[in-house]
């Protein structure tokens, strides 16, 4: 897809406030601070369209972005950020789960995992939710610009093992800084939206 137009549509906390026109959606999920909002901006080539921050917990609602008037990119709150209240963490988890499991127009889940860290229990829980949602999913290992070339070479295999995924599960090493993996990610997106 060539992005000719991209704009913020709305923030929502409840399903009744999500768009109702049934356009296909692409969702970005993963731990707080893993780089979801940044990735969305890089894919759309629009700096600052989705709000990003050095501090985890920036995205707190379900944010819909219109792309070319045909697709929504959906930026979601992260999980696993210990410094927000338990109530808020539970609220974000509920929003995320109900979005993933209940959202009919959802066509692809982009699950971001930080390439530098072993995936945690939260990542595993999210995988279980995604499995329950039965939606096509791609795992993207983010921030690979912070790895050495040798580490980068093994990142996909290691993640596959740590997450207990099958050998042919596709994992894309990605960096919003160097743009490595960008084309491969777009190929997967285009394939799912076709
Ligand atoms: N080095 C490096 N930094 C990145 C990359 N992607 C994102 N970042 C930085 O990581 C921080 C968090 O990025 P965000 O995009 O706000 O992360 P998020 O997953 O949306 O976080 P929440 O909204 O809090 O859940 C920012 O300081 C980004 O500049 C990357 O590929 N490489
Ligand atoms: Mg964010």
Quick recap:
The chain has 194 residues and is of the alpha/beta class. It has helices spanning 36-44, 86-102, 121-133, 149-162, 182-193; strands spanning 6-12, 25-30, 62-67, 71-75, 106-114, 137-142, 171-173. It has a single domain (6-193), classed as P-loop containing nucleotide triphosphate hydrolases (Rossmann fold).
Description:
The protein is an alpha/beta fold and 194 residues long. The chain has one domain (6-193): P-loop containing nucleotide triphosphate hydrolases (Rossmann fold, 3-Layer(aba) Sandwich), CATH 3.40.50.300. Helix content is 34%, strand content 22%. The chain contains five helices and seven strands, in the order ββαββαβαβαβα. It has a seven-stranded mixed sheet with strand order 1-3-4-2-5-6-7, with helices on both faces. Strand 5, helix 3 and strand 6 (137-142) form a beta-alpha-beta unit. Helix 2 packs parallel to helix 3 (121-133). The longest helix has 17 residues, at 86-102. The chain binds guanosine-5'-triphosphate (GTP) and magnesium ion. Magnesium ion binds next to helix 1.
Write the layout of secondary structure elements.
Elements: E1 6-12, E2 25-30, H1 36-44, E3 62-67, E4 71-75, H2 86-102, E5 106-114, H3 121-133, E6 137-142, H4 149-162, E7 171-173, H5 182-193
Parallel strand pairs: 2-4, 2-5, 5-6, 6-7
Antiparallel strand pairs: 1-3, 3-4
The structure holds guanosine-5'-triphosphate and magnesium ion.
Guanosine-5'-triphosphate binds at residues 32-38, 52-54, 56-59, 77-78, 142-143, 145-146, 175-177.
